[in-house]
Design a protein that fits this description.
39% helix; single chain; 9 helices; 9 strands; alpha/beta
Length: 262
């Protein structure tokens, strides 16, 4: 199991320069990935940062970290714009970009701007958007249009699907990985290793045996690098642990100590 961090880019962490400082510290400490949230939290009164601008700054300040979103609610974005942004990020980072997607969990981020929050509509938009994004990233012609330039990673950067329901797991099986939320806002684990293993088995049953490698990413909170729970999640099938970095869990000073204690 590899290790990265997932930064909740709300509140104080909506300041992109602070996220860059965290990324630099994480890379120096030996973490392997940095993901950020993708929310329009100002729609419900909380400062939030744009993930693509933030990750572009992180790309310039680091050299090895895999960088991505956890997760982008694709139904409230134009898929062709997402494909262009991800390609630019992949080229800027020299092939380190990852796209995490989901249905979007905060209704007001849709309704505040006159968009529908209907889950079935969002699911349809997510599936259609994924096909458009993947096609463009892979150099296919989509409605007579071909993306240029293409990402460094080919056939395309990895696409991870978030969510815990059966529909989300079936969707994840069609792409490159599953991104699961494992903790609550207080930093306590809410998804057990047994639950993760059961979900992975459902994905395996749905996945084409001839498909390539599959990433299982878990966002969680550990007590440190020697926390025995980490081995349990690794045994359950998690391939990338993302330590959750947010200010409801600890102070900035405490979080920076955790990042330094890889």
């Amino acid at each position: 199991m590899r290790f990265g961090i997932d930064v909740c880019t709300l509140g104080e962490f909506a300041e992109p320069a602070l996220v860059v400082d965290i990324a630099v510290a994480a890379e120096a400490a030996g973490w392997e990935a940095l993901f950020v949230w993708d929310h329009l939290a100002f729609a419900w009164g909380m400062p939030s940062a744009d993930p693509w601008v933030t990750l572009a700054a992180v790309a310039q300040a680091t050299s090895d970290l895999r960088i991505g979103t956890a997760v982008t609610p694709l139904p409230r974005r134009r898929p062709q714009v997402v494909a262009s942004a991800l390609t630019t990020l992949d080229r800027l980072s020299r092939g380190r970009a990852v796209l995490g997607v989901g249905i979007g969990g905060v209704d007001v981020e849709y309704t505040a701007f006159g968009e529908s929050a209907d889950l079935k509509s969002r699911a349809r938009l997510l599936d259609a958007g994924l096909e458009t994004v993947a096609g463009l990233l892979g150099g296919q012609s989509v409605d007579g249009v071909t993306l240029a330039p293409l990402p460094i990673q080919q056939p395309r950067p990895p696409i991870l699907v978030g969510g815990a329901g059966r529909a989300a797991l079936r969707r994840a099986a069609r792409w490159d990985g599953w991104l699961a939320a494992g903790d609550d806002e207080d930093g306590s684990m809410t998804t057990s290793p047994a639950e993760i293993a059961a979900a992975i088995e459902l994905i395996r049953q749905q996945r084409d045996p001839a498909a390539g490698p599959f990433e299982v990413v878990l966002v969680g909170a550990s007590r440190g690098p020697d926390d025995p729970l980490l081995a349990e999640y690794a045994d359950a099938g998690v391939t990338l642990w993302l330590e959750h970095i947010h200010l409801r869990r600890d102070s900035l000073e405490g979080l920076m100590r955790r990042i330094g204690d890889r």
